[in-house]
Amino acid sequence: MTDFSSLPHLPDSLTDTAARSVQKTQTAKPGGLFSRPWFLRLLAIAIIIIVWQLVALTNIRVPNIAEVIRFLIIEISEGTHGGTFKGLFWSPIGNSFMRYAIGMAIGVPIGFALGILIGTSTYARGLLNDTTLVLLALPSVVWAFLSTLWFGLTSEGPILAVVLTAAPFVAVSVSAGVRNIDRSLIEMCASYRVPLLRRTQHLILGGTLPSAITGTRLAFMAGWNSLIIVEWFGATSGVGWRARTLYNFQDYPGFTTWILLFILLIMILDRFLLRPVERRAFRWNEPPMLTFAETDDDSNASTNNSGKRLRKRQD
Amino acid sequence: MATVLIENLTKVFPPTANQPNQVQALGGLNLSITGNVLVAVLGPSGCGKTTLLNIVAGVEQPTSGSVRSVQDGVPAHISYVFQEPRLLPWRTVVNNMIFVQDRKSDRSRREAEFYLSMVGLGDVADLYPSQLSGGMQQRVNIARAFLVNPDILLMDEPFSHLDALTGRSLRDYLQKIWSQTRKTALLVTHDVNEAVELADRIIMMRPGGVIFDDIPVNLPRPRHPSNPDLQFLQNDILRRFDSMEAAVRFGVG
Ligand SMILES: Nc1ncnc2c1ncn2[C@@H]1O[C@H](COP(=O)(O)OP(=O)(O)O)[C@@H](O)[C@H]1O
Ligand SMILES: [Mg+2]
């Protein structure tokens, strides 16, 4: 019905070559292993291990890597470390993860709701902003003592600590996300009379999602740290409790092994759960806010979830 | 038939942090627009054009005076082409279009794609705005305004952020799509070329938000910028601005 072929066009070839030459300079990299992120990462790990071994040589209380591996094997196989002292592996990890999962499942939604409230309502901001900041600043060890006081040596204490540590991280980044939503987009919605529900869902939530996910990643780190500290001082099971027991027995290989496990577990969680989620949320090509999110293989922030580079089209 | 009726419209902005004095953006505007016409409001930067459109769109409230937009006796349905694309960066092009539709249906996507093809963007429906050039994003902005099938179409310098060549090609798209739909349209611009090429009537505004002239443009469409009649009209308009400035300066000094 309509003939569009007569509409004017800019010469495609002109802008296209310009675009291509820009791409070339972007993808051209100086050669060599030292420009590869994966190589640098391996190098960093190697340096850490070497320095560790050197320190272990000179200091009797620092176990070397062989001792750690020997200890780990006994723990996993639940063999004996000597006498009646038995290895334990899955139950401390299982206990900690159970508390952690419950705590995050409660804390993240609470933080999200608080963040939306603080971001949208000036009353809520006045009421809750300082409380959130206090929670953010409070050291986890305070939760350890308070929760032991309130709950004794049960699981509620560590769970509460995870909730109260994670929620403010999420709340702060979500409220910042809400407040950073482009005013001109709010005006656009108003002039087109976009219904409130759709506006909330796609403008407020859509615009907040990336910072919410970044905040959630931080909350996952902080919640895990807090959990371990609370378990250290006020629990009879879990990763923190296990590390403390070994520390009290002056079993330094054991203590070191669990500290390493503690770090490894959160790194695995971040890498295989949180980062893929974050990358999906950023697939419309805004670089993530945390710089440590960008150290991903050979790619950079302008890749989408399927690894394809978002390429700008020209007129 | 759609009508915009503006009576004694004023807008005064109170002092702000970076602007110690209050600003009179609109100074008692009277304007009536009726029927299937494209009216251009022409004036220099800062003379109150965006403020005028924002008030007509209902995004901003007037200090005094009134604006009524009606279609057959009921409040008119308005759409707005902004100076910048104003697309949600996390939604694809077609989802940005569907986002502003008042009712969603199976036809939504096809309608959106139809209007995209009207501005020559048939193949970018599923891309994100960041994957498009500025000119393409602005075409989406235009297509979105036609998609909602408005009674009244507002346009705020839709080509001013683009380079001259891209702007010119977009003007041709707009002429084409407007000629087919003939929506009552209010286009504000600081570009005399643009006004004479697109408008049926040109309203001239000076700083302080005051209308000082109002002329009809009775030239056949499609108009081409090289048409001598357009050149003639353009010179006439520039002369009117010059004598207005002289009069204002004389009146003040
Ligand atoms: N929100 C605002 N607060 C204060 N002053 C404003 C605001 N918006 C516009 N103005 C002032 O009003 C005048 C008219 O602005 P505007 O309508 O944007 O002009 P135009 O679109 O013609 O360039 C300008 O002097 C501008 O500084
Ligand atoms: Mg303006």
Write up this protein.
The complex is a heterodimer of chains A (about 325) and B (about 250). Chain A has a domain at about 95-285: MetI-like (MetI-like fold, Orthogonal Bundle), CATH 1.10.3720.10. Chain A is about 70% helix and about 0% strand. Chain A has helices at about 10-25, 35-60, 65-75, 90-120, 120-135, 140-150, 155-180, 185-190, 195-235, 240-250, 250-280. In chain A, helix 4 (about 90-120) packs antiparallel against helix 5, helix 6 (about 140-150) crosses helix 7 and helix 9 (about 195-235) packs parallel to helix 10. The longest helix of chain A has about 40 residues, at about 195-235. Mean pLDDT of chain A is about 80; it is low at about 1-25 and about 285-310. By secondary structure, chain B is α/β, with parallel strands linked by helices. Helices cover about 35% and strands about 25% of the residues of chain B. Chain B contains seven helices and ten strands. In chain B, the strands form two sheets. A six-stranded mixed sheet of chain B has the order 6-7-8-3-9-10, with helices on both faces. A four-stranded antiparallel sheet of chain B has the order 2-1-4-5, covered by helices on one side. In chain B, helix 2 (about 95-100) packs across helix 3, helix 3 crosses helix 4 and helix 6 (about 190-200) packs across helix 7. In chain B, about 40% of the residues are buried. The chains are: A mainly alpha (about 325), B alpha/beta (about 250). At the A-B interface, helix 8 and helix 9 of A face strand 6 and helix 5 of B. The site of adenosine-5'-diphosphate has 12 residues of chain B, from strand 2 and helix 1.
